[in-house]
Amino acid sequence: MQVKRWGQLDALRQQLGESRWLLCVDLEATCDDYPAGLDEAARNAHVLEVQRHEMETIEIGIALLDVQLEYRIVDHFGQFVRPLLRPKLTEFCTGLTGISQSDVDTAERFAAVQEQLGDWLAPRDTEGWRWCSWGDYDRNQLKEDAIRAGVDVLLDPARHINLKKCFWKIFACRALGLKCAVESIGLSWEGKHHRAIDDARNLARLTQLLLSSDAQRHGRHGMD
């Protein structure tokens, strides 16, 4: 896939260049879906075990990039989170994510995990950081989790970058899911899709390839 709008890519690089660190963030949350094969009447009658407004984060995954070192991946943060509203994971959720009931049953609540994240992030505060995710879902979900837990949101929404939106602007393409986007620029997906730590690492790899000076110099992305 070829870069179509270099001005958009340059603007993103300038935006990120103001900070030393970039956090590539991904979340997994409690969820449910309709069984396959339902007709419209059955679908309307079916009650999801987890409604959209009840979704809670059950895994936080972060890959840390050093902007000054060609966006090198230098650290990771990954923790499960124990949900409050719907503590029992649905069959759909465990099948999608591979996260087990025991993974969340033995985890801390959101407030405690966010405190751990704050301790991990604190050494980077002096040189500044931004964070990105694939779309706005993660930003909005973290805000909802913080409100529900009665704590301030740690990852400031004002520091957030929607990399999914940047990607389709840069490549002048339709909006893609993360896995499709990673593979469209010539990378192979690593790890399990819909595991937060693996998704975060793949988002970081995409970001690194997209923003590195080598990619800029060659004027292309992907494999020959």
Give the domain tally: 1
- Order of strands across the widest beta sheet? 3-2-1-4-5
Rg estimate, integer Å = 18 Å
What is the CATH topology classification name? Nucleotidyltransferase, domain 5
User: What overall form do the CA principal axes indicate?
Assistant: globular
In CATH terms, the superfamily is Ribonuclease H-like superfamily/Ribonuclease H
Along the chain, the helix and strand elements come as HEHEEHHHEHEHHHH
| Biggest sheet architecture | 5 strands, mixed
Structure class: alpha/beta
Q: Averaging pLDDT over every residue, what do you get?
A: 92
What is the helical fraction, as a range of percent? 40-55%
Strand content: 15-25%
Look at the structure and give the CATH class. Answer: Alpha Beta
Ends: how far apart?
Answer: 10 Å
The total beta strand count reads: 5
As residue ranges, the low-confidence spans are 220-224
- Counted by DSSP, the helix tally is 10
What does this structure look like?
By secondary structure, this protein is of the alpha/beta class. It has one domain (6-218): 2-Layer Sandwich (Nucleotidyltransferase, domain 5). The chain has ten helices and five strands, in the order αβαββαααβαβαααα. The chain has helices at 6-16, 40-45, 91-97, 101-105, 110-121, 137-149, 163-171, 178-184, 196-211, 213-218, and strands at 21-29, 57-66, 72-80, 129-133, 160-162. The chain has a five-stranded mixed β-sheet with strand order 3-2-1-4-5, with helices on both faces.
